Amino acid sequence: MIWVRRTAAAALAVLLFGVLLSALVLQGVTATFLRAGFYTDQLTDAGAYRFVLDDVLPSAIDEVREEEPDEIGVDLRENPVAVSGLDTPRIAGAVQRALSPGELEDLVAPAVHESVSYATGESDVLTIDPQLGEVVRDIVAELLALMREADVYERLLERELEPRIREAAGEALSPDVGTPGWTQRLFGGDEEAGGRLSRVVLSVVTPGWFGDQVEQIVEALTSYLVGDSDGFEIHVRLGDEQVDAAVEELRSVLRGTDSADLVYADILDPRVDEEVEETVQLPYGVAVSRGEVKAVLREVAPRPWVQQQADAVLGDVSSYVAGRSDGFSTAIALAERKQEAAQRLTELAVARVAAEVEGLETCAGEAGRRAAAAAASDTLPECLPAGVASDDLLAAARAAIAAAIPPLVLEPVPDAVVYTDEDLRRELRANGGPGALEALDDTRELFAEGWRYSDADLRADLASDPELLDGLDRLREFLADGYVHRPGAASDSTLAGALETMRSGSDSVRRGGMIAWLAVALLVVAIGALGGTSWAGRGIWASASLLACAALLLLLSWPVYEVVSDAASSAIRAEIADQPDDELGPTARLLVNKLVDVGESVSDDFARSVRLPGFVVAAVALVGLLGAAYGERIGVAARSLRERV
Questions:
Q1: Which stretches in the chain have pLDDT values below 50?
Q2: Which of 117, 291, 332, 584 allows an S-S link to 36, with CB 3.0 to 4.6 Å?
């Protein structure tokens, strides 16, 4: 019967090992993972804060420098870090001046402590208010100061803004490089596509002005982000002096084009095309073409007059393009030019009649009568009637032609041609398409009103992505007011859900630990009761079983653990080293290696938290074993000693 009991006691000893292991593990979890100070101590011991600023930050900057703009999520032509011309130490130094490792620890450590305290049930309210607004403002201020000091705005203007302005203006040009009229005059030129108008814009967009606008935008967005303001409105505009300078610059640029071509090809010729027939028949069978009318109008215009008309048009167009006027109407007086043109056209037509008359033979009789009748009806006769001198015929022809040209040829051409903004826009659309008009209107808006953008515009832009919009609101709320959460409070936050799960699990771990230690005590008593036949025997069985289990656990948590953990760490580090750079970049490699270091530290501390109570259990078991084994002898010796005394 005793062997049955001792077999049962041995079986319970195996169970005791598992229960004691559970009790020690749960106690280790309580002493480490359920203690808020454990996490902050780990971060401090690992030098995490200095590591982030001294190692991770420079590595991340270097990595971003090598990325394409679309890979880092910015709508820029070139990588902004590379274009800035700033080396990594200067950028990292600006951040480090605003945020030292100690200051970073002061921000992070309380937040970690509060979160773990709530998750483990040590506190009933989670309050995280790291006062990040001031830190964000300081970092932004340092970076802006560095950008201005290092002439970053000048490089960004040259490499980013100027190409965009030229590109926007160039889109107004037709693929046909010979695009005529104002489309070519405004958006073309000897420079690259969009050269003239972009040259005007860029003449007033200086690095200093550009820097002021960037800083205004960044400061407004920062103030909104950290909760200093409930909204923002960015208004980027040129000053009055800049707009006036742009008007003069545009006028100067346009003066470099052909003035005659401006006045005639762009303004007068189209009106002649509208009003004058392709060919106009005159007395004596001669005709002048529309092209000849346009050519004569050009010939009779003195250069000073053409330049005067061009200057008037250029002044009005320049003011309109620069947004100084809502429209324009420029009149070009042609009455005097038409009189001179009538004389030139008369000479041209008479010369043609003279060439025909010169070849005529004298005729008489019936032919002479028909010729005389034709001449009398302002028709060139087939022969020269007898008694009619060629000079007389030419004189009659001159008089008839001179009388016919004004009403037939020049009267359709108005005495004053009015050129308006509607004509300009019509021509731009005809020759450059909608892109030309869009470029014109964008330029006018830039000069007249500037560019406005508000928090309402931002929210409208983000409305298509509700998660992103919600994330913006949560970030603003956190930066402004921190984060407060109480048990049972309604929240759709992922963090709140995770904390509640951890809080519930923490209570279970603590209760489980207490139950496990109670089970250990009961098993020890049961083993002693089953294995021993006397009080000493029971003590020996109970203590020996407990000591054996504790010794085995110490073996597992010390030498065995050391061998296994070293092998696992080496394997993980080898795996990290074997990862190609395109899958694990330099910054990620730094972080992963640091996480391995922290993981080793956490694992070692946890093993110690299991091992130390194991030593206590082993010591208690050893004392109990010695007491049970030698208790009677010790008692006899003690009584003998008392008797002697």
A1: 177, 192-193
A2: 117
